[in-house]
Amino acid sequence: MSVSQASIVNAPREAIVSIARLNKSFGTFHVLKDVDLDVARGEVVVIIGASGSGKSTLIRCVNGLEMYQSGSLTVDGFQMPTQADREIGGDKELADIRRGVGMVFQQFNLFPHMSAIDNVAIAPMRVRRKRPEEARATGLRLLERVGLRDHAHKFPAQLSGGQQQRVAIARSLAMEPHIMLFDEPTSALDPEMVGEVLDVMRELAREGMTMLIVTHEMGFAREVADRVVYIDHGCILETVRHIRGPAPFCRACSGIEHGDTTKPCPLNRPVARDKTALTKRGKSHGIFDRCPVDRATKCRLAKLLRCEREGCRTRHRRADRP
To answer: Which one has a higher pLDDT value, 80 or 3?
Structure first.
């Protein structure tokens, strides 16, 4: 990477989401513990971690679906009120925050009695006071963008799971959000439907949309993420900066390690900087090389998997991949 390229990559950007020492509890269960996270405008941040670690709760706090007890949460210049403030009526800025935040859920949450175009157009008409013809024209354009123009007048029950999720993405985009939140958008889909949803998200990433994504799709995270955040038991254990690109070949196939500056990259892409980060456990890890927690017991992320190089029939450990 040249000096000019490095300066562009490392240039500071305005933070659209700023979280400082955020704490969230459900009764006596402490879900989020002193979470600190900044998301820059135009950045794609992927949150990974085990089920129940607090990933979904964190992004639900960002648009006010969950109330937090203490800390600070600023979204696009607006201060999100705490639970105590909202209980006494101090949530006037909540509507302003939600106008600029789009969210895609696991279960689609489409109105079953409304067609796809009506699901997309209703929010701009009700919230942004757009004329019906203008809202529907925008809705048709967005449905075409996600490949569903021909299904605009179908009801959710007439669509597949992948199609319903793409309608949900179009519905969020109709509000012209400044940031998109994705809460495991492919977890409720059959494997063959996952790709069509991820393709839409890839396109959004290429267009520079700010996105905060909770997912278990590790290959997708590697491809689109600017930064990967690992959460465990309500704490951010590791944050790794990552340069977007396809998953590299295994060492056995490529013959060299990605990140070796003395040899050309087999994928002709710049070497990723800050490949490792220091965890709270005091050990340095590459987020895609081995388990970020590095437990002494069997690591869930170190399972054997096939090399992505076409024609390779061997199996390699994740630690053997660059």
So the answer is: 80
* DSSP 8-state symbol, 185: T
Distance CA(248)–CA(223), nearest Å, equals: 10
Distance of CA 200 to the CA centre of its chain: 13
Question: What pLDDT digit, counting tens, does each position of 49-80 carry?
Answer: 988 899 999 999 999 899 999 999 999 888 88
Quick count: other Cβ atoms within 10 Å of Cβ 81? 21
Question: What's the confidence (pLDDT) of residue 300?
Answer: 34
pLDDT tens sequence across 210-246 = 999 999 888 888 888 899 999 999 999 988 886 565 4
Write the single-letter amino acid at 247: A
Which tokens belong to 68? 């937090």
**Is 61 strand, coil or helix?**
helix
Pairwise CA distance, residues 276 & 100, whole Å: 33
Decide: helix, strand or coil at residue 226. Answer: coil
Q: Residue 202: CB partners within 8 Å, gap ≥ 6?
A: 220, 223, 224
Residues with Cβ < 8 Å from 42, sequence gap 6 or more? 13, 208, 209, 210
Neighbours of 67 (CB within 10 A): 17
Which three-class secondary structure state does DSSP give residue 57? helix
| Cα-based torsion angle of the residue sequence 117, 197, 242, 295 in order, rounded to the nearest 10 degrees | 130
Alpha carbon distance 156, 58 (integer Å): 28
- Report the C-alpha gap between 189 and 306 in whole angstroms: 23
Q: Is the dihedral of CA 105, 123, 193, 200 positive or negative?
A: negative
| Confidence category of residue 321, pLDDT binned at 50, 70, 90 | very low
Summarize pLDDT for 139-158 with one digit per residue, the tens: 999 999 999 999 999 999 99
| Cα(77)–Cα(228) distance, integer angstroms | 24
